[in-house]
Amino acid sequence: MKKAGATIYKIQGAANSEHSIAEEEKVAFAELINRTLGDDPFLSSRLPMDPNSDELFEQCADGIIFAKLVNMVDSEAVDERALNMKKTKKLSKFQAIENCNLAINAAKSIGCQITNIGATDLIDGRPHLVLGIAWQIIKATLLCQISLT
User: Which GO terms describe its cellular component (predicted)?
Assistant: First the structure.
């Protein structure tokens, strides 16, 4: 389905629900994350992401990118020492759940409205939920840079 030049994908959800995601939204978020976190030495093996792939969903599945984005708004929101971070090995599911829970709770602490979204939704890479959380965190990141003085 195309509307005004946008590419919209429909995704079948639970209980016969249907969700839509925009390709342009995914691309924009991946590009912004690449620019914003590209200099982070820990993320050097993950970034830059290919914005034209589904890599955004894969890279956000362990919660580390979201936690680092939240810390750009409030540097004390997530104590990065509490994150399970490995550069080379994939995290266990339990470690990924811990990270995602930390990121979700930190996102709530900076004002993101997160309802009925859990760690397993991020780990499973459910596009509409990942993009929903990403949008709120990115919006908070951009708004914190505005100064009225």
Answer: actin filament; actin filament bundle; cytoplasm
